[in-house]
Design goal:
Length: about 140
């Protein structure tokens, strides 16, 4: 399998509860390398642009408010099949459906406050990484 990069976000519910290190440990234990990382506080407009694909969904406004409510940690994870592997480590979007041992099963509070975001495909990974990072910031 090819080495890939994927965009990960540790969301406000997790930064509020000081869970960055525990979540990063899950990534590293799964063989994902954190090749870029920064803590930022998104504006609602920046969150809205990132999630614009969901603009017509009923939860969009709530999602944007939540993502701008406290700092997030944006990061680039690298590894063999990193996009699918990260989704496996995160678990299902709704923590009620997430497999035991996954980040969302252990830490998420609800479908909205679900601790982490991960890109879902190579094209979205490339676009989402470029939204937050310049090439110079990716240090493999
Ligand atoms: P994420 O992987 O970041 O991508 C879109 C986000 O929308 C998703 O995780 C959830 O946090 C959020 N989301 C999805 N469904 C709902 C919902 N029914 N109510 C609130 N938020 C949702």
């Amino acid at each position: 399998m090819a080495i890939e990069r994927t965009l990960s976000i540790i969301k406000p519910d997790a930064t509020n509860r000081n869970l960055t290190g525990k979540i990063n440990a899950k990534f590293e234990e799964a063989g994902l390398r954190i090749v870029a990382q920064k803590r930022i506080h998104l504006t609602k407009a920046q969150a809205g642009k990132f999630y614009e694909v969901h603009a017509e969904r009923p939860f969009y406004d709530e999602l944007c408010d939540f993502m701008a409510s406290a700092p997030v940690v944006v990061q680039v994870l690298e590894g063999e099949g990193a996009i699918a592997k990260n989704r496996e480590v995160m678990g299902a979007t709704n923590p009620a459906d997430a497999a035991p041992g996954t980040i969302r099963a252990e830490f998420a509070q609800s479908v909205g406050e679900n601790s982490v975001h991960g890109s879902d495909a190579p094209e979205t990974a490339a676009a989402e990484i470029a939204y937050f990072f310049s090439g110079l910031e990716l240090v493999g």
